Amino acid sequence: MNPDEIEAHFTRSDGSYLCARWGRPIAPVVFGVDDVTLPIIKGAIEAVAALAGHDTAETDPELGANMMVFFFRTWDELLDLPDLGRMIPDLEPLVGRLKDANANQYRVFRFDAGGAIKAAFVFLRMDTHLDSVPAETLALSQAAQTILLWSDTAFRDRSPLGRVPGQEAALLRPDISALIRAAYDPVLPPCAQDASHALRLAARMREV
After folding, report:
1. Sign of the CA dihedral 114, 117, 118, 121?
2. Which one, 109, 142, 143, 155, has the greatest CB density within 10 A?
3. How far apart are CA 184 and CA 189, in angstroms?
4. Where are the alpha helices (DSSP H) in the chain?
5. What is the pLDDT of residue 89?
6. What's the CA gap between 117 and 71, in Å, rounded?
């Protein structure tokens, strides 16, 4: 992946560059799945965090859980969840926009004073398409898209996952794996808003 390709992964649709990583251990909680699926989701989050060299935890001392993953059938279900409106400002108009767009997923991030990720909310409306995706694939895709703050267009045309010929399970693409590891290099800042950051990422990808 060359510097221009890296830059595109963190350049938002408004033209601004923003790359942020987690600044604290990830403490996930998952809602709306059965006991069989729960370890698959948490396992994917732990695997991607381990790839990045980042920690996971049972609880966050400030927030309790700092990564919340919700599975549901209709967007309106979010409006019935206690206290979610307090955590997600303007939840009702957001749900309206997601319904109008017929969206099946959405992610919201919160940041600390230094710009690092301190919380993430992942919403997955299980429509016909997502129902057809194996749980392992869906979990890995969401974990990869939540380990960093990517551009809102980063994976519009190509998934962060790929398939090995002859194997059913999907895997993280090697270039995305290398980019995640590079972004978590402790030499780099937890949050960058200058596109020259992509050059530093490219240099570290060559090293890893």
Report:
1. positive
2. 143
3. 9
4. 3-10, 38-52, 84-87, 91-100, 128-131, 135-146, 174-183, 197-207
5. 87
6. 22
Q: Is residue 160 part of a domain?
A: no
Total number of domains in the chain: 1
Give, as one character, the DSSP assignment of residue 124.
Answer: E
What is the reported pLDDT for 208?
60
In the block, tokens 């919380």 appear at 119
For 109, 147, 151, 195, the CA distances from 167, given in Å and listed in that order, are 33, 25, 30, 37
Contact of 184 with 21, CB cutoff 8 Å: yes
**Mean pLDDT per 10-residue segment, the chain (208 residues):** 96 96 97 93 97 96 94 95 89 96 96 97 96 93 97 93 78 95 97 97 87
Give CA–CA dist 199/2, Å, rounded. Answer: 9
Instruction: With H, G, I as helix, E, B as strand and everything else as coil, classify residue 144.
Output: helix
Find where tokens 């595109």 sit: 8
Answer yes or no: is 42 within a domain.
Answer: yes
